[in-house]
Amino acid sequence: MKKHKDQSGKETGNAGFPQPQSHIIVELTEYVPDSIVSKTVVKKAGGDVTASSFDEGEKLCEKSIEYDTYVQIIDGKAEVTVSNKDYKLNLGEGMIIPAHALHCFKADKQFKMLTTIIKDFKED
After folding, report:
1. Is there a domain that residue 71 lies in?
2. What is d(CA 37, CA 72) in angstroms, rounded to the nearest whole number?
3. Four-residue CA torsion sign, 120, 96, 49, 39
4. Is the pTM of this model over 0.90?
5. pLDDT in tens, 69-87
6. How many structural domains does the chain have?
7. Bond preceding residue 20 cis, omega within 30 of 0
8. Between the CA of residue 122 and those of 4, 5, 11, 99, what are the distances in Å?
9. Phi and psi of 114, rounded to 5°?
């Protein structure tokens, strides 16, 4: 596997985060007016982890992916619709969104979430 280094020479992951180095997950993305901001924490062949922030009034809908997805709210509260069923997730709560399920995230107020996708793959 190819190793990446930042400008200071520290080893980094595919997303450019120094490894190993601690960070505060809720601080990885900032709120930007009228925007959804996403930052990849880890991206590998077997899956990825992404931190996202949603400004008040923003939504991301009519989306589905081919893998199960785990989402956890790390700031605020979110409205999540999965296969036409509505859920309200509070700070610290999470849920699994099944593969291929249409889903939507709505921000009545600002919120941040962490998304983890674990892809099915076979080891050689």
Report:
1. yes
2. 16
3. positive
4. no
5. 999 999 999 999 999 999 9
6. 1
7. yes
8. 25, 28, 27, 18
9. -115, 130
